[in-house]
Each structure stands twice: as structure tokens, then as C-alpha cells.
TrEMBL record:
Catalytic activity of the protein: K(+)(in) = K(+)(out)
Pfam families named among the record's database cross-references: IRK, IRK_C
Name by which UniProt lists this protein: Potassium inwardly rectifying channel subfamily J member 1a, tandem duplicate 3
Organism in which the protein naturally occurs: Nothobranchius furzeri
Lineage: Eukaryota, Metazoa, Chordata, Craniata, Vertebrata
Domain Potassium channel inwardly rectifying transmembrane: 24-166
Transmembrane stretches, start-end: 60-83, 138-161
One of the protein's GO biological processes: regulation of monoatomic ion transmembrane transport
Length: 373
């Protein structure tokens, strides 16, 4: 039991180290740090304060939301307190019985704070009100009303913008945890499956990829993050995809592909990261969003193919079985792309398939007639 626990701990630490070395995590976050930034550059974030407020964490937004209102109420209460003091309205000043106050029932700092809060939030309990005796108080109530409206507008805009961020829509678009390499339409292809979990479509979807690796030029210069374009296609084409059901993306491994020189026994020894992007516009909100994920060599399975997930019921309805979304089966695949058309390699894998973790299974009641995509 202890050996099994130790093995799990070692596997967990290995996964943590691998996650730190990849540029883009599986959920699309970029793993990059910025250092030695000049202090003068920080003022650029203040100049673009709107974007700064929208991008900061929720805990800071809620803090600024509470602090902005509380601080404005308190600051204006000090001004109201000063006006009442100058007019002799406070209790310790012992006003006469026929004294006309600037603000009725404001006789201390606490009552001044309550009046400030009621004024800015337009509560209007009726226990405190301003009299026309003090023109300064009339001007102050106008200023406080305008400041309160500005704070309300700004903070409500920030919260609404954060709620409707396009990256929230991207959470309902998911990729398979693993990519596969297998024959497809007479070519050797690298395949990835993507699904839209909402019934609303993504309009104008475009799919592309970048292969990140460290290379050395002929001049001896080392490029840490060399980017190579990776083209993906689906059966329906490359652009303006009909993203109504899960799609399988294909990258043809030909002579121009960076995967052409790789083979089944050398793939795991490679050092690269395949980043896949899906850009589109949400049909319901008309907001553009981008979904990202990445694959490292150990997440690419050579000689496997995805199981079909689309079927048609007896009632004529199309159904998607998400229990097969990440399942793969072994297929006869050549040893490498170079020998694909000359030597047909076969790999003896288990016929039970292999589950890729990280995707929730949705149960479907009626049996399905599986059809080939």
C-alpha cells in the first residue's frame, strides 16, 4: 500500500513539473512570467485602468466595489459634519430652540455618515433632510449625487464586463486530452477532437495550430520558442465550420509537416508542444472568443483512432454519445510518414480501447446505432 502511495506521489510530482514546462495548459492558460519590468511601465496599466479592472481577480473587484462606496460615504460625511459644525448644529454646540439647522437631525459624525449614505444611495428615510439655509449644502448634495452615479456606473460596468467575458464561453468548448495519429483518406493524419457543449453555434469558426520547439539555426543561434504553423482541416473544410456537433480535426503529415521526420519509436523522445487554437463568434452574444489547448509528445498516441460518437435514432434524431468522446481504438498504422505509402506497419494493441481522463460522461438512455462519421 505504501509503495502504491509513493508511486502516486511521484507521478503527481512528475505531472506538476511537466505542467510547468508547457507554455499553454490544457485549459488554455499561458504559463509565462515577466521579469525586470521598469517601474515606468506600470503606469501604462493605470492609463488603461478599464482593462486593468476587468482583468483583475474577482476578490479584488469585490474589494474595490465595497471600498469605493464606503470610502465615498465616509469622505462626504466628513464634509457634511463640517457644514453642520460651522452652522452650530451639533449637540455639543448647544444650539438654541429656535435654531434652524443646515441638515435636520444631523448632530454628530454618526448621523452625518447616515445622511451621506442615504443621500448617495437615494434611500430617503425621511428622518434627515437639508434645509435651504446653507447654499454650500445644496451644492454638496448635487456633487455627491453626481459622484455616486459615476461610481455606480463604473462598478456595474466592470462587473457586467467580467461576467460576460468571452473566455467564459470558451469554458464550454473542450478538446480531447490526447491526440492520435492514424491513416485518414489516403494520408497519415494527426487527429484531435473538439466539442461545443452548448447548443448555440459558434459562427465563423477557424482552427489552426502552432508547433513550439527549440531550434538552432545554421549560424549557431538558439531559438527557444520557434513557432511553426500547423494547418488543420475537417471533412467540411477549413473555414466557416458548422460547429453543431463534435468535430475531428486533421493535420495531414506530408513532406512539409514538422511531424514527417518523426516515427512511432522517436515521437516520445521529441521536445515540442503543439498548441491548437479555435476562434469563433458566439451566436447568442456576438462576442469573439478563442479556445486554446496544447499537446506534448506523451499526449500523442501513434496508431490509434477515435471512436464514432454520432448516431441516428429510429425517430430520425441525431444524437451524440459523449461517453465515446475521448475513447480510442488501435488501427493498423505505418511506422512513420515516410514509409506510409510503401510499408504498411501494424501495431498489436488492445482492442478494448483506452479512456482519456478529464471529460465528463453523459448517459444516454436509449441504445444508439453507431454510424461512421
Amino acid at each position: 500500500m505504501m509503495s502504491s502511495l509513493n508511486q502516486r506521489i511521484r507521478d503527481y510530482m512528475v505531472d506538476r513539473r511537466r505542467q510547468k514546462t508547457r507554455l499553454v495548459t490544457k485549459d488554455g492558460r499561458c504559463n509565462i512570467e515577466y521579469g525586470n519590468i521598469k517601474y515606468s511601465t506600470h503606469f501604462a496599466f493605470l492609463a488603461d485602468f478599464w482593462t486593468t479592472f476587468v482583468e483583475i481577480r474577482w476578490r479584488y473587484v469585490l474589494f474595490f466595489f465595497s471600498a469605493s462606496f464606503s470610502l465615498s460615504w465616509f469622505l462626504f460625511s466628513l464634509v457634511w459634519y463640517a457644514i453642520a459644525r460651522n452652522n452650530g448644529d451639533l449637540t455639543w454646540q448647544n444650539p438654541s430652540a429656535d435654531h434652524i439647522p443646515c441638515i435636520v437631525n444631523v448632530y454628530g459624525l454618526t448621523s452625518a455618515f447616515l445622511y451621506s449614505l442615504e443621500t448617495q444611495t437615494t434611500i430617503g428615510y425621511g428622518a434627515r433632510w437639508i434645509t435651504p439655509k446653507c447654499p454650500g449644502g445644496v451644492a454638496l448634495i448635487v456633487i455627491q449625487s453626481i459622484v455616486g452615479a459615476l461610481i455606480n456606473s463604473f462598478m456595474c460596468g466592470v462587473i457586467l464586463s467580467k461576467i460576460s467575458l468571452p473566455k467564459k464561453r470558451a469554458k464550454t468548448i473542450t478538446f480531447t486530452e490526447m491526440a492520435v495519429i492514424s491513416p485518414k483518406n489516403g494520408s497519415l493524419c494527426l487527429s484531435i477532437r473538439v466539442a461545443n457543449l452548448r447548443k448555440t453555434l459558434m459562427i465563423g469558426s477557424q482552427i489552426y495550430g502552432k508547433l513550439l520547439r527549440t531550434t538552432t539555426t545554421q549560424d549557431g543561434e538558439t531559438i527557444i520558442m520557434d513557432q511553426v504553423n500547423i494547418d488543420f482541416i475537417v471533412d467540411a473544410g477549413k473555414d466557416n465550420l458548422f460547429f453543431v456537433c463534435p468535430l475531428t480535426l486533421y493535420h495531414v503529415i506530408n513532406k512539409s509537416s514538422p511531424f514527417f521526420e518523426m516515427a512511432v519509436d522517436t515521437l516520445q523522445n521529441q521536445d515540442f508542444e503543439l498548441v491548437v487554437f479555435l476562434d469563433g463568434t458566439a451566436e447568442s452574444t456576438s462576442s469573439s472568443c478563442q479556445v486554446r489547448t496544447s499537446f506534448i509528445p506523451r499526449e500523442i498516441m501513434w496508431g490509434y483512432n477515435f471512436l464514432p460518437i454520432i448516431s441516428k435514432s429510429k425517430e430520425g434524431k441525431y444524437r451524440v454519445d459523449f461517453s465515446n468522446f475521448s475513447k480510442v481504438v488501435p488501427v493498423a498504422t505505418a511506422h512513420c510518414a515516410y514509409c506510409y505509402h510503401n510499408i504498411k506497419g501494424h501495431h498489436l494493441h488492445s482492442r478494448n480501447g483506452q479512456d482519456n481522463p478529464g471529460f465528463e460522461v453523459i448517459e444516454i438512455d436509449s441504445p444508439l446505432d453507431i454510424t461512421k462519421m
